Amino acid sequence: MKKKESDQPTSWEEEVWESPPLMARSHIKHDTFLNCWCPQCGVGLNEGDKAVFEIVNQQGQVGISRIAAYLNVLEQESTLQIDDDEELSDVRCPHCHASLIEPGRRCRQDGCKMAAIHVSISNSLRLKLISCTRQSCRWYEMSDEDNERLILRDSHEW
């Protein structure tokens, strides 16, 4: 699909919603800090301003990845060399070492595996955020229920 009067393709948000994109509808700031937790053991994944994960590359090497814990800020550092187009073999909790991969879920953009964590702005309500395991992919999803919680104007979370 292409924008009218333009050769540029529409964004996925424009294809899904006729209304303004999620960030505008929810009044969420682009760089809102996210508290992150493991959905398996419940232990926090944040260290300073980064969320920390144990990662496994396609060669089976295990390392640590630190990702900016801010909404739509894509800064990342890793102890392993990961190419932009490389799909990780696994993403794990650094505390309980449980896999965060969502069985049967695939990224709509490129078909890669998806990993899930719990996030919130405060410690009260945790929302499930599922994202692609390929470094250069920016695809993420939330359940319809969590998405509705996210966009409520009166939500104490935002």
From TrEMBL:
<protein>
    <submittedName>
        <fullName>Uncharacterized protein</fullName>
    </submittedName>
</protein>
